[in-house]
């Protein structure tokens, strides 16, 4: 994925029409850069081998974790938080929230869980979602 | 590097006292997340094995490339650009510019060039720069 021009995360996010459907907008080494619009709650899952970075553009992201893992984290615009591999988590937002993500290219959207929210990598690479 | 709290890229950058001295603020998989303040011009160099992602927080980043590689690129706040491995490049900014970078943990600051700007990974991990 050779990038020709600078890409605005905000504009890339604005172009999304569907909630909870990440779109790949770039790649650095073995990591995809993605954007997503979210509102409501995403199923609990984990990635055994891969960390996941969340960067908030608009709104507020709640990352749920068990009490043993430190409990929920709230991420605001301009802030990032990395969920380490192996940590069970979910994401939610009460208002429409725009986020960027950095994930290993092999990361599965909902970890080992198959849910109605699950999007394949092919879907995440498709234009016009 | 286990992250305890969300981190604001803007505040992390504001805390830097020295130009051209990246500070590691996070890690996702085998990639470091760094912030830097820059102004003026950084030496030409390349990374043969590693892509480098630049995200601009404030100001304007100019990424110089040879004409054969497409020439210079200008990156504005909220935009990112990935310089692919093997592409000779330099970075410059006419005004003070705040950036975040994502680079493989093994990436050398000035590639194969040793310059007065070169900072070791240990220096980039040190607090209070």
Which terms would index this structure?
homodimer; 129 residues; mainly beta; Jelly Rolls; 7-stranded antiparallel sheet; 8 strands; 9% helix
How many structural domains of chain A?
A: 1
Q: Tell me which oligomeric state these chains represent.
A: homodimer
End-to-end C-alpha gap of chain A: 18 Å
User: Count of helices of chain A?
Assistant: 2
Question: How would you characterize the largest beta sheet of chain A?
Answer: 7 strands, antiparallel
Proportion of strand residues of chain A: 35-45%
In N-to-C order, the SSE pattern of chain A is EHEEEEEEEH
Please give the radius of gyration of chain A in angstroms. Answer: 14 Å
> Care to count the β-strands of chain A?
8
Give the overall silhouette of chain A.
globular
Class inferred from helices and paired strands of chain A: mainly beta
The CATH superfamily title of chain A? Jelly Rolls
CATH fold name of chain A: Jelly Rolls
Mean pLDDT across all amino acids of chain A:
92
Largest interface: A-B, 35 and 35 residues
Q: Level of helix content of chain A?
A: under 10%
InterPro entries (chains A, B): Cupin_2, PKS_Associated_Protein, RmlC-like_jellyroll, RmlC_Cupin_sf
Protein name (chains A, B): Cupin domain
Domain Cupin type-2 (chains A, B): 39-97
Organism (chains A, B): Edaphobacter aggregans
């Amino acid at each position: 994925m050779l990038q020709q021009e600078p890409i605005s995360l905000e504009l890339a996010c604005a172009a999304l029409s569907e909630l909870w459907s990440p779109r790949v907008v770039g790649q650095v080494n073995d990591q995809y850069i993605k954007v997503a619009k979210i509102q409501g709650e995403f199923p609990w899952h984990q990635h055994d081998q891969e960390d996941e970075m969340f960067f908030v553009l608009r709104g507020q992201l709640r990352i749920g974790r068990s009490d043993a893992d430190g409990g929920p984290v709230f991420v605001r615009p301009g802030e990032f938080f990395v969920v380490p591999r192996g940590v069970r988590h979910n994401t939610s937002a009460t208002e429409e929230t725009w986020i960027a993500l950095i994930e290993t290219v092999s990361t599965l959207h909902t970890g080992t869980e198959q849910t109605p929210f699950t999007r394949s990598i092919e879907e995440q690479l498709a234009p016009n979602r």
